[in-house]
Amino acid sequence: MTKVVIIGAGHAGGTAAALLRQYGHEGPILLAGEEPAPPYQRPPLSKAWLKGEADLEALLLRPEGFYAEHDIELRKGVTATAVDAAGKTVTFADGTVEPYDALILATGSTARKLALPGADRPDLLELRTLADAERLKAALGPGRRLAVVGGGYVGLEAAASARALGAGAVIIERMDRVLARVASPTLSDFFTGYHRAHGVEVLTSAEVTAFEEGGVRLADGQLIEADAILVGVGAQACDQLAASAGLALGNGVVVDETARTSDPAIWAIGDVAFRPVPVHGGARHRLESVPNALEQAKQAAAAITGRTPPTPEAPWFWSDQYDVKLQIAGLPTDADRQVLRGDPAAAAFAVFHLAGDRIVCVEAVNAAAEFMGGRQMIGRGTAVDAERLADPNVSMKAVAAD
Ligand code: FAD
């Protein structure tokens, strides 16, 4: 019977284990991860959980008893250190060696560090794991001030949650706008305004040069005072095990449409994978999102159990800040223009990115119909009339039916 070993008990690994059983895999499954908790969801760590609106139980992907009930061996608190692809074994830090027939690498990503003076200060915070979130939460509260280095989604969400907990917050971004790498200028302007309206100081074109006692030093000499400093400057693939196995690497572990790596017995899924996106012409991307983790878990479980692969999906993502629900579908890589629908001043709008007459990405702020319609049209590759798309009096249904 085929033995499947899954390294990394996060969103992708935990889902793959459950799907293997659901798809009829009868052989042994070992799900091994280095964190002390069973597989849990990370999105609430910067949102509901941080604000005290969700407990640990609500974070868990499945109740802890699920794994034993489905004959999945869940090993927590163990670190895999090497993969021998020729011998088909995984070695753990305690010296244990596990053989496998099929191996799934679901090791996720790790917070990027800044090589700056003071970056090794023990009081610097990052936000990737439940343990990180517990430290951050303990540092927030009325009368405290949080400095967030990096104006990406995790940083913006943490700032919004800090405000909800009564703390002050300042966001320090080196580019000339927040979300510069991942969103349109319209979206950046909207979130900057929204955070400022909620009492967050937003500094752009501000380069951090050092972390000091009491705050963050900028290139212009200013000290930005803070009681807590969160560094949120992106994440890197945890691809060391894949490297030890000699697998092909790019921006993460190179995989095909079935999440299979350059070794036919090894799959890589979730944040660690550098995967083709068929809806966007098959170019490879490393996607850090829950929908990506779920889609790739399905791909790997289907391939291992000999099922038909799932239909490719348009990538999508969400972010919650204050009362704003942002939903993004697609990738703006080939876009040549943007079409605005709705009103940013009313906090209800969508930015559509078009390549010729096709939508390749939609950024929807409190605009569920635009998100749904845009996502469908991206998946189908249908042509749209940009003028009708921009007109909120024409329903998204009618735009899609053109
Ligand atoms: P992870 O969930 O990170 O799991 C990887 C696991 O592998 C970790 O537990 C790690 O400890 C373990 N591991 C690594 N190396 C080893 C090893 N050598 N041996 C054993 N175990 C190992 N996505 C969204 O779509 N929407 C959101 O709103 C959103 N918000 C987020 C907020 C925060 C604060 C964070 C951190 C992420 C957020 N994401 C969001 C991203 C999303 O959570 C990730 O894309 C998703 O968790 C990826 O799943 P994964 O299984 O690939 O990685």
- Strand percentage, roughly? 25-35%
Q: Helicity range of the residues?
A: 10-25%
CATH architecture of the largest domain: 3-Layer(bba) Sandwich
CATH superfamily of the largest domain: FAD/NAD(P)-binding domain
* Averaged pLDDT: 97
Strand order of the largest sheet: 3-2-1-7-20
Structural class: alpha/beta
Assembly classification: single chain
Structure report:
The chain is an alpha/beta fold. It folds into 3 domains: 4-110 and 236-305, FAD/NAD(P)-binding domain (3-Layer(bba) Sandwich); 124-231, 3-Layer(bba) Sandwich (FAD/NAD(P)-binding domain), CATH 3.50.50.60; 323-401, 2-Layer Sandwich (Enolase-like, domain 1), CATH 3.30.390.30. The protein contains 11 helices and 27 strands. The chain has helices spanning 11-22, 56-59, 65-69, 130-139, 153-164, 185-197, 240-244, 290-304, 368-380, 386-390, 396-401, and strands spanning 4-7, 29-32, 72-75, 80-84, 89-92, 97-99, 102-105, 109-111, 124-125, 145-149, 168-172, 201-203, 208-212, 215-218, 223-225, 228-231, 235-237, 249-250, 252-254, 266-268, 273-276, 284-285, 316-321, 324-330, 337-343, 348-355, 358-365. It has a 5-stranded parallel β-sheet. Strands 9-16-10-11-12 form a 5-stranded parallel β-sheet. Strands 23-24-27-26-25 form a 5-stranded antiparallel β-sheet. The longest helix has 15 residues, at 290-304. The N and C termini lie far apart (52 Å). The relative contact order is 0.12. The structure holds flavin-adenine dinucleotide (FAD).
Question: Any chance you could write out the topology, listing elements then pairs?
Answer:
Layout: E1 4-7, H1 11-22, E2 29-32, H2 56-59, H3 65-69, E3 72-75, E4 80-84, E5 89-92, E6 97-99, E7 102-105, E8 109-111, E9 124-125, H4 130-139, E10 145-149, H5 153-164, E11 168-172, H6 185-197, E12 201-203, E13 208-212, E14 215-218, E15 223-225, E16 228-231, E17 235-237, H7 240-244, E18 249-250, E19 252-254, E20 266-268, E21 273-276, E22 284-285, H8 290-304, E23 316-321, E24 324-330, E25 337-343, E26 348-355, E27 358-365, H9 368-380, H10 386-390, H11 396-401
Parallel strand pairs: 1-2, 1-7, 2-3, 7-20, 9-16, 10-11, 10-16, 11-12, 19-21
Antiparallel strand pairs: 4-5, 5-6, 8-17, 13-14, 14-15, 18-19, 21-22, 23-24, 24-27, 25-26, 26-27
Bound molecules: flavin-adenine dinucleotide.
